[in-house]
Amino acid sequence: MERQPYPSDLTDDEWEILKPLIPEHQGVGRPRTVNIREILNAIFYWVDNGIKWRAMPHDLPPWSTVYDYYQTSCKSLKSILVQQHF
User: Fold this and answer.
1) Which of 8, 11, 24, 77 is deepest in the core (most CB within 10 A)?
2) Domain Insertion element IS402-like spans what residues (predicted)?
3) CA 5 to chain centre
């Protein structure tokens, strides 16, 4: 069953812009089992609504999964910025 969209969800056009920027699974570790678009929707919901991670709505991926992806992406971005000397 498909969930009702939140105002903070990515539009199809926004997703098409972001989709090529998301790295594919590299074959190391467990295969990806979550929908990355839903992870991004959950992060945008968190930002838009200022909620605690544990208050993530149940129709979005589990808060701990979203949090892990958020932390990993922040570390990756920091690494890229350091390499570029920003």
Assistant:
1) 8
2) 10-72
3) 16
DSSP characters for 23-38? PPP-SSSSPP-S-HHH
DSSP string, 33-56: -S-HHHHHHHHHHHHHHT--GGG-
Q: How many CB atoms lie within 10 A of CB 51?
A: 13
| Cα 84 to the center of its chain, rounded Å | 23
| SS3 label, residue 14 | helix
Q: Residue 9 carries which side chain, given as an amino acid letter?
A: D
Residue pLDDT, tens place only, 21-48: 888 877 788 888 899 999 999 999 999 9
**Domain regions of the chain by residue span:** 32-85
